[in-house]
Write a structure and sequence with these properties.
With 200 residues, the chain is mostly helical. It has nine helices and two strands. The longest helix is centred in the N-terminal third of the chain and has 20 residues, at 51-70. The termini are far apart.
Length: 200
């Protein structure tokens, strides 16, 4: 990424709006930067991995930062989802709603994630298996352990610490669900545990 693109991304992050504070008495607020783009444009640019795509991706991160700062009882709205997953979720939403503006799509997507948010600050924990590792909140790991225990994969304490018992439980879960067996709480595994299975 060149210097100009990095600067543009930084500006978008600093100026991203958050509706709760920016709205007037009628609930209206000004949209800045890439939030005015349509989902249709986002999909087109995402396919090309063009500069406008990276600008929209940067706008999303800015929106999330503002949401974390101003939303009630929120430390991190996306407690475990990385940028790659969030953009994949936005792509899915945009395919179903191509005429929607990005700011509306992002708000709809984040509202859907609100229930899984981190309400208070949590320490970061490093999960390591072989040469691979993942960094996640202790509270997220505790939720993963609780879910694994409910499914019969884990018998230890839901303490938010990554040890051999958690790794073996994740390996067994990944094997059963035909996921890549790493023993780590990667994005696909967490999504399956906390989102997909929660809907069943």
């Amino acid at each position: 990424m060149n210097k100009m693109k990095k600067t543009a991304l930084a500006l978008l992050i600093c100026t991203a709006p958050f509706a709760a504070l920016g709205a007037d008495k009628d609930g209206r607020f000004a949209i800045k930067g890439a939030g005015t783009a349509s989902c249709e444009r986002y999909l087109e640019e995402r396919g090309k991995r063009s500069e406008p795509y990276y600008l929209i991706a940067g706008w999303l991160n800015g929106y999330l930062t503002a949401a974390n700062q101003y939303a009630d009882e929120t430390y991190d709205l996306v407690a475990w989802q990385n940028s790659k997953l969030l953009n994949a979720l936005l792509e899915t939403h945009c395919k179903a709603n191509p005429k929607q503006q990005i700011h509306i799509a992002v708000r709809a997507m984040t509202e859907g994630l609100r229930a899984e948010r981190l309400r208070e600050m949590s320490m970061l924990v490093k999960a390591k298996s072989g040469e691979e590792e993942a960094l996640l909140y202790q509270e997220t790991l505790r939720r993963i352990q609780t879910k694994l225990a409910n499914l019969g994969f884990y018998t230890g304490a839901a303490d938010g610490q990554f040890g051999p018992g958690t790794r073996k439980a994740l390996e067994a879960f990944q094997t059963q669900h035909k996921l890549k067996v790493t023993g780590l709480p990667n994005q696909t595994t967490i999504y399956m545990l906390l989102i997909t299975l929660a809907k069943k």
